[in-house]
Amino acid sequence: MEQHLLFRLLRSVHDFPERKFPELLALFNTKSFRKNEMLFSAGDVVKQTYFIMKGVVRQYYISPEGSERTIYFAEEGKFCGELNSFLFETPTKLSMQALEDTDAIYLDRKNWELAMTTIPDFTMWHIKNHQRLMVKLKEEVGRGVIESPDEKYRRLVKENPELLQRLPQYQIAAYLGVTPETLSRIRKRNSKL
Fold it and tell me: Does residue 76 contact residue 55 with C-beta atoms inside 8 Å?
């Protein structure tokens, strides 16, 4: 039997026991989003944490001037949400939107707490994964300070080339922090490498 995407993710970080996976999976609900549908918007209190089974979503800020700045893409096999709002029931400053028709499974706050308190291996996975994400976030912030848009584009091509095929160019430009016209110039310069 093919392994569930979520189980593969859990096993990639922690030796999550296969026998406990059905108990954890039973706490998740399913939800589908149409292309361009919002999972949540700035000002909402986020009520779920999502795991993407099919599709792509983006997480973004809206600047005071009204421009969107994408900070995260989540495709199949990734969690997404806004943990601060989810845990502390405060309004989020972020928005999350489906960029393709998307199928997700999710935990609401009650089931997340139940999983954390009754499935120790999920708690251990969460702790280990949180530490990995903190390291990755620090690296990403550091890169944002020192990398040029060209360097960030080349890294995206190297680390996640399929996103370049799946997403509209203006979404890639928003992630790089440039205009679509500048992205065209970046792509042209880097196609020669």
Answer: yes
Q: How far apart are CA 82 and CA 58, in angstroms?
A: 12
Compute the half-sphere exposure of residue 65: CA atoms within 13 Å on the CB side of its CA.
3
How many beta carbons lie within 10 A of that of residue 5, not counting itself? 16
- Locate the DSSP E strands across 5-111: 29-33, 38-40, 48-54, 56-62, 68-75, 79-80, 95-98, 102-108
Q: Which residues make Cβ contacts (< 8 Å) with residue 27, sequence separation at least 6?
A: 107, 111, 112, 114, 115
Q: Per-residue pLDDT tens for 142-170?
A: 877 788 888 888 988 898 888 888 998 88
- At 151, is the secondary structure helix, strand, or coil? helix
pTM for the model: 0.87
The token pair that represents 130 in the structure block: 């949180």
Which domains are delineated in the chain? 5-118 (2.60.120.10)
